[in-house]
Records
---
Amino acid sequence: MSKFVFTPTDSHELSDSYDAIIVGSGGTGLSAAIQAKELGLNVAILEKEEKLGGNTNRASSGMNAAETNVQLMHGIVDDKEDFFKETLKGGGLLNDREMLRYFVDHAPLAIDWLKDHDIELTDVTITGGMSKKRTHRPASMAPIGGFLVQNLLKVARKEQIPIFNKVKVIAVLQDDDKKVDGVKVVIDGTPKEIHAKAVLLASGGFGASKDLISRYRPDLADYKTTNQDGATGDGIKLAEQVGAQLVQMDLIQVHPTVQQDHPHVFLIGEAVRGEGAILVNQEGKRFVNELSTRKIVSNAITALPEHSAYLIFDQGVRDHAKAIEFYDSVGLVEHGEDLASLADKIKVPADALEKTVKTWNKAVETHQDSQYARTTGMDRGVTSAPYFAIHIAPAIHYTMGGIHINSKTQVIDENGNAIVGLYAAGEVSGGLHGNNRIGGNSIAETVIYGRRAGQQLTLFVRQH
C-alpha cells in the first residue's frame, strides 16, 4: 500500500482574508481546522516549517480518555473521576481545574470524533501515573503521532482545507479597538498581511528554544531535547506582543527515557514500560517504580552516579510495543539470546541482572512488587528470549507553561480579560497539566482542545 503524501497548498493561493487563521499544523491545528470547516468557516492553516505536523509527529504512546467504548471492548471499566484525580495528582495539584474538567469530560467524545473520521484507536495501554489502561492507540500499536497527523491530513484534504507551509507568522494584527484583525507573515522573505476575524495559535511549545529555556529554566539549558527544531515558542512570543499573560513558564517536563548516544535524540515511548519493561542501573538493579510520574522517574535516573539507565525487556514486550521495531531499525536496541549475553553487551553484572529479572518476574506472578510498589504495566514478565536493552537518560520533552487561556481557549491578557478574537490551544498554552504532564495527555489535549478551539472560533466569527 502506497504511503499517503499530503501536498501543501501553493503560497501563491494564499488569500488576503479568511474567517479564521490557524497558526501551526500539528494535532491541535489540524483538529481545530477540520472542526471549524465542518461548521462552515473559511479557514487556513499556516505552518512555518517545510514538514507538516510539528511535535505531534513525535508522539509515541497514545491518547488518554476514560469511560470509552474502546475500554469496555477490552473489559476495562474506568471512571472519569479517577482520570481527573490522577491527572491532578500527577500535576502536583497545579492544574487549571476548569480546563482539566473539560478535558476529562470531552476525552471520550474526542475518541468518537476521530472514529467518525475513520481514525480508529482500538487498542489500549497504560502510562505513568495512571491506574487503568486508558491510553488509546491504533490496533497496529503504531506510534500515535505520525498515525494521527497522516489521518488528519487525509481529512483536511477531503475537506479542502488550505494548509500552507514555509509561511512564518511574525505578528498578530489588531484594529484600533484592539480586536484581532489577522496576522502578518513572511513568505520567501516578503511580508504580507492576511486579515481574519479570529486567530488560533496552535504552534506548539518551546522545548527546542535555547533562549526561552535559558530565561525560565537556566538549570536545563544544557539538556538535549526530544522536540523537533521548530518548537521554539513562536506562538508564545506572538501572544506576548499583544499583551497576553503567560503562566507556569518554569514548569518544563524532562522525559525519563530518551536515547541520546546518537546524533539524533530518540524518545523511547512510555508504552515500552507500560507493556512490561523495567529500568536497571549500571549495577543491574532496579531503582524506581518505572511507571511513577515522569518527574519522579527522571529525578531517580538523574540521581544515579551515571545519570542514565537501561530499559530491559523481552520479546513479549516487543510484540506489544511496535515502536521498538523502529528503535531497532535505527540501531538503538542491544540484543542478547539470554540475560547473561545481554548483560555483557551493556556492561552490567550478569548475576545481578539475572537476579533482578527473576525478582521482577516473581512480582508479576504475584502482582506484588515489594521493592517499588509498582502496580501497573505488569501484564507480562521478562521471560521470553531474546532479551533487549535500550540505554536512556532524561531530556527536555514538554513545556507545561505557556499562554494563559480559559477553558474556551480564549487568550487572557495581563488584566485577566480575554483578547478579542485571539485563541490558543495545545502545548502553546499553559495550565492544563500542572507541573508534570501525564503520558498520553498531550495527544488527547490536541484533539480535545483543538476541537474546542474550532467550535469557539466558529461561534465568535458568527457573532462578528
Note: Residues 254-396 form a domain with the Flavocytochrome C3; Chain A, domain 1 fold (CATH 3.90.700.10).
---
Amino acid sequence: MRLEEFASVVSHDLHNPLNVAQGFLDLYQATGKDEHLDRIVRAHDRMVGIVEDVLTLAQQGQTVSETEPVDGTAVTTSAWAFVETESATLDASWDSTIDADASRLQQLLENLFRNAVEHAGPDATISVGELETGFYVEDDGPGISPDDRETVFESGYSSDEGGTGFGLTIVKQIAEAHDWRVSLGESSAGGARFEFAGVERVGE
C-alpha cells in the first residue's frame, strides 16, 4: 500500500468514530450524563482498532491471518453505532455466525453504511441479510448505474464532489482479504445492493 493511499484510508475510516465521539462529547457537555462518556470511550477504542487494521493491511497486504466466529447481528449493530446515520433506519436480519476478522468486517460494514447514508439520503432504509453463501447490504436510494458498478470499487472514485473515493475500495479490499466475492447490483427498491459470497459459516 502506497503511503498516500495509506493516509487516505486511515483518515477516511477515522471519520466515522471521530464524529460519533464528538457528538457524544457535545451531549455530555450539555447534560453531564456519564453514559455519554462510555460511548466516547468506545469510539476512541474503535479508532485505535482501525489504525491497527490499516497498519496490518499495509504490512501484510490483502490477507487475513486470524479469524474467529463472528455473529452477524452483533457486528452489524456495532458497525451501525459508529456511523453518523442521521434519520436512517437499519433493517437487520443477518442471524448466522461466520468465520471472519471481526474488526475488519465491522470496518467493511461501517463503510457501506456511511456510503448508503451519503448517497441514499438521511432517511434511507439500509438492510442487511442472509444469502445462501454469504450476506448482503442494500439501501432504498437512487442506486448506482450499471455503467459505474465496476468503477466504484476503484481507488479515488467518488460521485460525491466532497467524497474521498476510498470507502468502496476499502470494502473490496477487506472482502478479498477474506477470499470473499463482492458484487454490486440493484435492490428491490431500486437502490444499491452489495452481495458477499464465499463466506464460511460456523457450526454448519
Note: The mean pLDDT is 84.
---
Amino acid sequence: MSKPAAKTMSPASWVALIVLSLVWGSSFLFGRIAVMEIPPLTLTLLRVGLAAITLNVLLLVMQSRVTHTPGLWRDFTVMGLLNNIIPFTLIFYGQQEIGAGLAAIVNAMTPIWTVLIAHLTTADERFSRGKAIGIFLGFYGVALLIGSAALAGLEASAWAQMAILGATISYGVASVFGRRFTDVPPIQTARGQLTTSTVLMLPLALFVERSWTLAMPSLGVWAAVVALAVLCTAFAYILFFRILAQAGATNVALVTFLIPPSAILMGVLFLGETLELRHAIGFALILAGLIAIDGRAAQTFTARRGVR
C-alpha cells in the first residue's frame, strides 16, 4: 500500500492563513481588554455562546438543514472541548497575569506540538527534516520579533505561563483531531463545536463564577467581547476548518507564527508604531520557516538539480 501524499499549501490557502493570522492576532488585544472586567470562565462562555448564536442564525438564513449523526455531534463535543473550552479558558487565565508579548511567545509552541502529535498519529503528516528546520526558524523568528522587552515579563507567575502552554497543547491535539471533519462543510463544523462548547460552558460558568452576580461590564468591554465572538471566533473558525481540510493540521498550525507579526503590523497601521531592524529579521526568519515546512521550494530546487 502506497503512503498517502503529504498536504501542501496552495496560494489560496496562504492568503486565507494570513487573513486568519490578522483576525486571531487581534484576539489577544480584545481578550486582554475583556478579561480585565469579566472572569475567564464567563468570558469563554460569552465568546463561544455569541459565536454559536451568530453561526446558527447564519445557517437559518442560508436555509441549511443538514442533519448530523449522534457520532458527529460527539466529535463536535470533543472538538469544542479541545479547541474552545480548554484553550480559551487557559489563555484568559494567563492573560490576567502576563502581557501579550510573552503570551505570543508561549503560544508559538502550538505548531511544535502539532507536528509531534501529527507525526505520532497520522500517516501523511510525518516529521521531516524540513519541518524540523522550519519549526526552529519560525520559533526563533517569533522570539526575535517580540524582543527583549517582552522577555522581561518572564518573572510573571509560573501558573500563568503554564496555563497558556497548556492551551497550545490542546490546540495541537485539536488540529489533528479536526482532520476527521474534512468532508463536513467548514461552517457546519464551526457551528457544531461552538454549540456544544456553549452547552458545556453554561453550567460551569454559572456555578463556578456565579456569572449573574458580576457587575455589568463597560461598553468598551462589550465591544471587545462581540469582536472576540463574531470576528475572532465565528468567522475565524470557518476559515480555520477550510484551511485544515485543504492543507492539513501541520500547515494550519503555522498561523501561530504569523500572529505576532500581524499584531505588530496592526500597531504600525493603527497606532503609529515603528518597525525596528529586529522586526524585519524576525519576519525574514518566519518566512524562511514557513517555506521550509511547506517543502515545495526544496522539492523544486532538488528537481532542477536532478535535471542538470
Note: Residues 129 and 293 are 9 Å apart (CA to CA).
---
Amino acid sequence: MTVEDLAGTGAPTALRHADLAVTRYGDLGTAWLAGMWHGDPLADAVVNDPVGPAAAREVRTALESGLGAVQAASPTAAALLEHLASEPPWLERERLDRASDVLVRYSAQWGLVLGAASLLAGADNWIAARPLLLTGRYGTQPAVRSIEVGEWLSQVVRPGGMALDGPGLSRTVRVRMIHAHVRKHIHRAEEWDHAAWGVPVPQPYMAFTLAEFGHISLAAMARLGVRLRPAELDDIYHLWRYVGHVIGVDDALNPSAEADHVAIEELYRLTSPGPDQYSRDFVRALTEGYLAPQLATVLPGTGPWRERTATALMYGMSRVFLGDAAADSLGIPDGATKHVVRAARPVLLGLDQARLLVRGRTRVTAAGYLHRERELARLKAEHGMVHDLVDAVPGAVGRTD
C-alpha cells in the first residue's frame, strides 16, 4: 500500500488521541493529522527528480549565486526556486531585522533554553526522533548537532539574514533540502513503518520545530527573567512565520502568532506516543555531554564542583521548563535546583532591566552580535568542527556532490 493509499485510512496508528485532536482543535487538528502523510512536495520532487543529483545541485547553485542568477534546467528545481523568490503578501521585512536585534540581546539565555527546553520538548516523541536515529544523528553527536543549529540560527537571526540573497535564507533552504534527502534515504532503506508513523519529517513536526524556536524558547526565557515587549514578541513570531514559509511548512500549519505556536505544542504533546529509551539517552547525552560543560565554564569554584553544580542546574532548568510530568518521562533527575531556578527569576529580571537601562538597547544589541560570533568560533574550535551544516560533511545524508 502506498503512502497516498494510507493517507485515506486516517491518522498513523502510533499516534495517540487522534479523535480528541479534531474535537479540541477543529480544522487545525484535522490539518495536523492529515499533514502526517505529507512531507514537502517541492523539495521532495527535487531530490527524487529523474535527472538525479543535478536538480539538487541547481538549487544549491542558485542559493550561492542568487535566486535570479540560475535558469534551472530541471522543472522541479525551477518550481522550488520560483516558490522561494515569490514573497508572501503578509511579509514585512523590517520586522525580521527588528526580531533579530531583540533575540541577539539574549544570546546566552536563548542558547540555554534551546537546549534545556526546546530540544528536550522535541525529544518527548519517539516518532519525531526516529529519522535522526535512522540517519545516525541521534544521541551520539549532541554537541555537533547543537553547534550546527547555532550556526544556522546565527545566519537567520541577523540584519538581512532572511533577505532573498541573505545567508539565513540560503541556510534555511539547505535545511529544507536536508529534510527531503532524509525522507528519500529512509524510504530507500525500508526501515520506516508508514502505516504507524506517517512520513519521515512530516508537516506537523516541521511546524513544531518553529514552535521550538518560537514560543517554547520564549516562554523558557521568561522564566529566566527575560521580559519582552508585546511588539517585540510579535516581530519574533513574524520572523518564524517567514522561516516556516521558506523551509516548506504549508500555510495550514505555519504558525503566525503566539496562539498558533501554543496550539501546535499542545497537538504535538496530545498525539505524541511519548519518548523511548533513545530519547532518554539523547537527553542525558545532550545535558551531561554538552549543555552542563558549557554552563560550567561560567561558574566559579573548582572543576568537580562546577561540573556537578552545572549538571544539577541544567536538569533543574529542564524540570522548570518542561514540567515534572514530561521531565519524568524523559528520565530527567529531580532535585532541589528546580526551586533555585524558580527563585532566581526576579533577580535575573532585575539584572537584565538594569543592563538595558545602563548600557542602552543599541549597545547591548551590538555587543550581542559580537559575543555570539566569538562563542560560535570557540565552540567550533573546541569540538573540531570545520563545517556549518550536515550537508557539508562527506558521506552525510543531504550531501549532493
Note: The CA atoms of residues 32 and 358 lie 46 Å apart.
